[in-house]
Amino acid sequence: MTCVRYWRCFVKNQRANRHSKSYRPWVSMRRRCLNPRTKSFKYYGGRGITICGRWQSFRNFLADMGERPGGMTLERINNNGNYEPDNCRWATANEQQRNKRSNRLLTFQGETKTLTEWSRQIGISHSVLDHRIQSGRFDEALIFTVRLLPKGPARGSCVGRKRDKSGRWA
User: Are 96 and 75 spatial neighbours (Cβ–Cβ below 8 Å)?
Assistant: First the structure.
C-alpha cells in the first residue's frame, strides 16, 4: 500500500471512528506495518509483518477484536505472524513483556518460563539467576536450595545481634 493510499484510508476512518478506544491501536498497527518513515517500521513492516486485507477497514477490525479493554494493548500471539484475527488479542503490559522476541525461555521439569518469571518464582534477582545460568548452574539442586533459604537476616555477624534505637547493629 502506498503512503498516499495509507493516509486516505486513515483520514476516512478517522472522521467516523476517532472516539473508539480501539481506534488508536488500529492506527498504530497500520503505521508500524505500512509507513517506512516510522521508527518501528523496521521491526514490523520491514520484517514482512503485514495486516490482513479485512483489517484495512477499522470497522472490520473493531468487529473482530471488539473495544479495547482498559489497560490492554494489541498483541500478536505469534511474534513472527501477521496482524490477523487468529493471531491477535488484547493483552496486559506483563503479557506483552513475556511475548518478546528477545526473551530467554528456559524449560525446567517440563515448565517453560522466561528468565524473569523463573527469578520471581525462585526468589532471586534476575541478574543472579542469569549469572548462574551462564555458569552452567541452572539445575534442580540450585532451585530447591534457593527456595529453602530462610528469609531472615543475612547470615554472618548480624545474626543474633540486636539493633539500637537508630537502627544500627549493636
Answer: yes
DSSP H helices, 18-73, are 23-34, 58-65
- Give long-range contacts, CB 8 A cutoff, 24+ apart: 86-91: 90/65, 90/66
Confidence category of residue 143, pLDDT binned at 50, 70, 90:
low
- What is the pTM assigned to this prediction? 0.62
Which triple of cell numbers denotes residue 28? 498504530
C-alpha cell at 103: 526473551
First to last CA, the chain: 73
How far is residue 110 from each of residues 101, 113, 116, 120, measured CA to CA in Å?
21, 10, 17, 18
